[in-house]
Structure formats: C-alpha cells, structure tokens
Amino acid sequence: MPSVTAKANLRAQVTDGIVEAVLDELADVGFGRLSMDGVARRARAGKAALYRRWPSKQEMVLDVVAGLSVPAAATVPSDDLVADVTALVAGVDAWLSDVRMSRILPDLLAEAMRNPELADALTRRVGTARRGYGQAVIDAAIARGEVSPDVDSEYVLDLVAAPVFWRICGRREQTGPAFVDRVVDSALHALGVSAR
Amino acid sequence: MPSVTAKANLRAQVTDGIVEAVLDELADVGFGRLSMDGVARRARAGKAALYRRWPSKQEMVLDVVAGLSVPAAATVPSDDLVADVTALVAGVDAWLSDVRMSRILPDLLAEAMRNPELADALTRRVGTARRGYGQAVIDAAIARGEVSPDVDSEYVLDLVAAPVFWRICGRREQTGPAFVDRVVDSALHALGVSAR
C-alpha cells in the first residue's frame, strides 16, 4: 500500500514542534507573510532556537518542506511497472491530500515565479529530489526492456504529478482511487506501455 | 493556427490602461499585496476611476483576469477532434506562456486555497467558463460517435490544462510544439481515441 507508506512518512517528519509550527504558519499565511517571529510565537519557542537550526527564513522553509516532501516520493522500483507507477501517483496524491501541503505547494510555486533564488532552491531540493524516484522507476523499466530508452521521461514525470496537483490545488476538487487509476493509465500510455 | 488566435485575444483584452495596470500589479506583487492605491498609482489614474468600474479589489481582479482568460480558451468545435484538442491545448499554452499570466494564475490558485470566497468566484468566472469550451469539443465528438458518452470528461479537461500548468508554472520550464503534441496525445488517449 504505497499511500499508507507515504502517509506514514508524512507523519514521521512532523513529530517536532518547531517543524509543526513552520508548516502551520506556512499553510496559514504563506511564504511572503511568514516571519521567524510568527513561527517562534506559534512554536512557543525563542527565535534563537530557530536561528540555531536555520540561518534564514528561506532555509527554514526549504528544509522543512523538503523534509516532508522528498521522503513522501520515495519509491523503490520493483519488477512490476504498473505497481511502481501506481505507487508514484498515489504518493503524489497522499502528499497533496495533506491539508497543509495542499496550501503550501501552490503558495511556494507562486512565490517561486517572483523569486528566482527560491525557485532554484525549490527545484534543487524538492523537485529534482522527488523526480529522481520516478526516474529510477523509468530507468528500471528501460533496463528490463519494458520501456524504450527513447521515452520522454521528463513528460512522463510531469504526468505523474500534474493532474493530481491540478485536481487538488488548481480546481480544489477531490481525488480518489478511480482518479489515481486514470493518471496511472495516462503515465503508462506516455511510457508506451498499454495499461492492464 | 489556434495559438495565434489565442494570442490575438490576449492582446485585444489589454488595450485599456487600467486593465494593464491591474495585470502588471497582480503579476508583480500578487493578490494579497495588491491594493486599489497601487493600481491607481501604476495606471496614473484616480482611485475613483477604479471604483466606478469595480466595487472591490476582488471584483476588479476577477473581472480583469476573466476578461483575459476566458476568451483565450475560446474554441469552436470543428469536425476534426485532433485539431480541436490541439487548439484547446495550444490555447492553454498561449495563455500560460504570457509572462504575466504565468505569475498571476499560480498566485490566484495559492490565494484561493486560503480564501473560499475567492475560490468560488475563480471557479465560476474563470474555471467553469474556460472548461465549457473544452466540454463543447467533447460533446461534439460524442455527437459524431467518435467518443463514448461514458468518457470521463472531467479528467480529459484536467489533462488539457494540467501538464501545461505544471511545466510552466510548477517547474518553470519551457513548453514547445513537441510538448503540446504530447499533451494532445494524452488527452486523445483519455478520450479513448488513438492519436495520429
């Protein structure tokens, strides 16, 4: 059950009170209005406790968001491509079905369009790290001869996440198992593999 | 050439100096920090000129964004499904390749996750209106017997927009004709139609 694993990962990352406060504050006010003071107040901690861990607001946010988001994408390739792609899509679904992440990610994407430094850090520490897990699934399928080495991996990886983001954060509508199956089917088609 | 039409629509909507100022301000500072004062200053107009047209900041933003976004989705169904779906996807691509819209849309989506009133208005005045054009293309294909009436239209319409949004606004990467073709192929597959 990949979604259960992803949810367990989400929980494991938020045992820390300061991390919780960063996530709550980010979900409530967004990156632009988030301050070290606000996080310290919410965490009932001193600002010094925050600065001991992170040199800046951006570092704090990236560290906390990457800590929640990268493990949520962890998928170890099996020898079953359909199961692996389903795990990837279900992982995105679990990640964005988290009430806080469903607010935090669109806010960071919006901020990144205006802030190139945040954009680069977000790509490096969250995007590229998450996509590495999907790429490993594709590479394993190529190595088994199930998928052509000419496949457009970039597009396949986009397809694993984009419809889920759009449904939850773009249209504020629900996902569900039938929706996840449709996304998996689209990704398999883009991999040049026919579904079940 | 659907993308040329969409771009002409984008231009036709922005001949007005105040509308230009709303779009510039929204792209630069986002909905949260946008003020009637800021727009008036940028437009070199009085605030009274803004309040004559719109009763509130939210009304102003929605009117301007809908005025740019809804005509950009206008597609009249032909008898060629591949051409129609290509026009829809190219329309989304032209819409989000506009430098201002690529900042404005993610910002409004982020804001909508925190502001249910804005969310409802955005769905009604932009989302539903834009999706109506795509639904008409699907309905015409169903009427011609090319697509099953059981098709998951909601998912197909998600697929027309989601990968384009994700590539441009989620990953800050380029699109291009080959990418548009891939999105069209995904949408046709979801329609149960094999591509070219």
From TrEMBL, chains A, B:
<dbReference type="InterPro" id="IPR023772">
    <property type="entry name" value="DNA-bd_HTH_TetR-type_CS"/>
</dbReference>
<dbReference type="Pfam" id="PF16859">
    <property type="entry name" value="TetR_C_11"/>
</dbReference>
<keyword id="KW-0804">Transcription</keyword>
<feature type="DNA-binding region" description="H-T-H motif">
    <location>
        <begin position="35"/>
        <end position="54"/>
    </location>
</feature>
<protein>
    <submittedName>
        <fullName>TetR family transcriptional regulator</fullName>
    </submittedName>
</protein>
<dbReference type="InterPro" id="IPR011075">
    <property type="entry name" value="TetR_C"/>
</dbReference>
<feature type="domain" description="HTH tetR-type">
    <location>
        <begin position="12"/>
        <end position="72"/>
    </location>
</feature>
<dbReference type="InterPro" id="IPR001647">
    <property type="entry name" value="HTH_TetR"/>
</dbReference>
<dbReference type="InterPro" id="IPR009057">
    <property type="entry name" value="Homeodomain-like_sf"/>
</dbReference>
<dbReference type="GO" id="GO:0003700">
    <property type="term" value="F:DNA-binding transcription factor activity"/>
</dbReference>
<dbReference type="InterPro" id="IPR050109">
    <property type="entry name" value="HTH-type_TetR-like_transc_reg"/>
</dbReference>
<keyword id="KW-0805">Transcription regulation</keyword>
<dbReference type="InterPro" id="IPR036271">
    <property type="entry name" value="Tet_transcr_reg_TetR-rel_C_sf"/>
</dbReference>
<dbReference type="Pfam" id="PF00440">
    <property type="entry name" value="TetR_N"/>
</dbReference>
<keyword id="KW-0238">DNA-binding</keyword>
<dbReference type="GO" id="GO:0000976">
    <property type="term" value="F:transcription cis-regulatory region binding"/>
</dbReference>
